[in-house]
Write a structure and sequence with these properties.
Arc Repressor Mutant, subunit A, 2 helices
């Protein structure tokens, strides 16, 4: 889902809906846990973290809008 939306800031809700679907109740912190695990897995093969946290908004994979945008 991140790769399909590369460069786009995704909220926790958008990630929940896109990955798990709308008909399932999953706590928003679940996204944080999975993003952390994904970062850890991706860090094994790279020096930089391709997932950036956009404070108060969500996450972006790859190049996205600057943090202040």
């Amino acid at each position: 889902f991140f790769m399909e939306n590369s460069g786009r800031v995704l909220s926790r809700q958008q990630l929940l809906d896109g990955v798990w679907g709308r008909d399932v109740f999953i706590d928003g912190r679940t996204v944080d846990v999975h993003v952390g695990r994904l970062r850890k897995a991706l860090a094994r093969g790279s020096e930089s973290d391709p997932i950036r946290t956009v404070r108060g908004t969500g996450y972006v994979f790859g190049e996205g809008p600057p943090s202040g945008a």
